């Protein structure tokens, strides 16, 4: 009963903090709109920008509708291949968000398991896992992703590079994020395993795996949720960075990074809308997710309640 009242109190406090923070509310609205538009892109996009049967090169480089020579058929204009930019942004946002969510989910799964093992078992297992974490965290995340992508391109046949690009970039981002999760989970697990409820369960003979999964893990998920939210923006930006550098999604696949890379070629030739609108979409998406992550971190911090 007391635990239920405490949970309801925390939820009400979080809701109050959320509603009294206009910046957080705006970030939530922007993130929700972008995510919904991305999920519904096959139905709300005016065109299918990556269907070669419907793309006409004669429609290339049409400016946005409010500029001279604009066309109401293409509200935000077209790129150099005649693809509708609004539709491309909707499809590209869906890919970027999907990559971000899957990469962060995989990173959380890896970091949660290894962090629990390191924090609960200690000893050699803890030392081995933490040394791997320390080594990996000495390298920037983008460098780790580039290294994994380069290795995969050297191993896989050339004709499979584009086909497996999505899976490679997800794995690259996940392997660059999991050390942060593992360190946080390890620290929280080392605190939780010495509490009375864990000692009591251990005395009655419960297996270590049951104690970790059923009793310790639910109490370390709060910090993990914060890290996952913040790293969602990092993963989306990482995908865009890799695609912009030409080692992420191929040019034939929808992605905010590939759209920005294509538009960058026309930045100084007058067709600035090709890079401005995808760049603005990426900035709004990452900024809104990061603001929500910052709010969640503050809301879950017991010192600020």
TrEMBL record:
Source domain of life: Bacteria
Record organism: Ciceribacter sichuanensis
Keyword field: Cell membrane, Membrane, Transmembrane, Transmembrane helix, Transport
Keyword Nucleotidyltransferase assigned: no
Record family assignment: Belongs to the binding-protein-dependent transport system permease family.
A Pfam family reported for this protein in Swiss-Prot or TrEMBL: BPD_transp_1
This protein's record includes keyword Transport: yes
Compartments it resides in: Cell membrane
Name of the protein in its database record: ABC transporter permease
InterPro entries according to UniProt: BP-dependent_transpt_permease (IPR050366), MetI-like (IPR000515), MetI-like_sf (IPR035906), OppC_N (IPR025966)
Topology of the protein relative to the lipid bilayer: Multi-pass membrane protein
């Amino acid at each position: 009963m007391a635990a239920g009242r405490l949970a309801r109190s925390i939820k009400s406090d979080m809701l109050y903090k959320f509603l009294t923070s206009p910046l957080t509310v705006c970030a939530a609205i922007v993130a929700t709109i972008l995510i919904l538009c991305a999920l519904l892109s096959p139905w709300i996009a005016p065109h299918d920008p990556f269907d070669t049967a419907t793309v006409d090169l004669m429609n290339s480089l049409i400016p946005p509708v409010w500029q001279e020579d604009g066309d109401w058929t293409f509200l935000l204009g077209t790129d150099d291949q005649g693809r509708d930019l609004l539709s491309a942004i909707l499809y590209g946002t869906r890919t970027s968000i999907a990559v971000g969510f899957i990469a962060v989910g995989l990173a959380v799964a890896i970091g949660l398991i290894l962090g629990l093992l390191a924090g609960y078992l200690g000893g050699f297992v803890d030392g081995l896992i933490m040394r791997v974490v320390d080594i990996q965290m000495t390298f920037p995340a983008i460098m780790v992703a580039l290294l994994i992508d380069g290795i995969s391109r050297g191993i896989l046949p050339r004709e499979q590079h584009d086909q497996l690009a999505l899976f490679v970039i997800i794995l690259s981002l996940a392997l660059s994020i999991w050390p942060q999760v593992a360190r946080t989970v390890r620290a929280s697990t080392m605190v939780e395993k010495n509490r009375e409820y864990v000692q009591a369960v251990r005395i009655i003979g419960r297996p270590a795996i049951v104690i970790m999964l059923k009793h310790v893990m639910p109490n370390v998920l709060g910090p993990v949720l914060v890290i996952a939210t913040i790293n969602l923006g990092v993963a989306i930006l990482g995908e865009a960075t890799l695609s912009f550098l030409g080692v992420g999604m191929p040019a034939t696949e929808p992605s905010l990074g590939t759209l920005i890379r294509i538009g960058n070629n026309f930045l100084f030739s007058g067709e600035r809308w090709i890079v401005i609108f995808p760049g603005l979409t990426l900035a709004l998406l990452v900024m809104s997710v990061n603001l929500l992550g910052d709010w969640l971190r503050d809301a879950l911090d017991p010192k600020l309640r």
